[in-house]
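Students often ask what a 'structure token' actually looks like in practice. Rather than answer in the abstract, let us consider Spore photoproduct lyase, a protein of 342 residues. Its sequence is given first.
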Amino acid sequence: MVKPFVPQLVYVEPRALEYPLGKELISKFDNMGIDIRETTSHNQIRNLPGDNHFQKYRTAKSTLVVGIRKTLKFDTSKPSAEYAIPFATGCMGHCHYCYLQTTMGSKPYIRTYVNIDEIFDAAEEYMEERAPEPTRFEASCTSDIVGVDHLTHTLKKAIEFFGKSEHGRLRFVTKFAHVDHLLDAKHNGRTRFRFSINDDYVIKYFEPGTSRLHERIEAAVKVAEAGYPLGFIVAPIYLHEGWKSGYKEMFEKLEAALPAFARKDLTFEMIQHRFTKPAKRVIQENYPMTKLELDESKRKWKWGRYGIGKYVYTNEEQEDIKDTLGNHIKHYFPEAKIEYFT
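Now compare that with the structural description of the same chain:
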């Protein structure tokens, strides 16, 4: 069982203490006896303890920075939503393949933002622009927000904010099972709670520091019982020896656990494993012993949206993945909707 995250080291931007949540968090960490240091900016954490890159990287992953989100212009999101809404950046998990490895670069520490009312005000403006169309906000583009929320309750406040909104919808995805504090949030069905799931091989070898599959499924059942619309992201779909039986077993476990009512409005998203050249470099530096297969010669080259090429599976492999997993979803969850495969 992965214990809920507790930072070993906390940095705070002085201005964060002008916000109620900033004061509350620093007082909480002080009472927990955690080392608290000051920083001029959440983008400028230097001198992290550690003798080499390997140690510094691991220290960073257990460091929390309490700061202010200055940029309130939201990025347009992935296929799942119109906008990314920024409550946190960084993650305490150690997923070897994670794309945050390269986007976070030299800043793998976790940042939580305390000016949440300003973030909500910005969201309100985006919703007004698109009204009466609904606007979906994705809260997990740059972090696993659930992994830190038992400390901050930012996500809980966001769920209740969108629960009251007419045109807003919230979505996020997590690999953590620490959801109990979110079960009584007044969500009014406007938040889709998604879990990232994978077969046991991928979770065992590539997702250290995250909840195991059975824990995520148990948490998903609790979330469904709390009335949230539910979704699953199967990602990254990774071809390893025995992958077909591994993914079949994963769907069987899910099917055995999910109550009937939770299947009515169920979504699946499927994302194949991919990597870029810069990501490969960073992954091999951060996880030198990884078993992750990163051989470009076995992959197909594909241009990305932002001019950065990535290595994906070959067309035949992609068809095989799509058919195999798609058929399992149709078989075990005939009422579910497959939102996309990428």
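One point worth highlighting: The first strand starts at residue 9 and ends at 12. Ask yourself how you might have guessed this from the sequence alone, and why that guess would often be unreliable.
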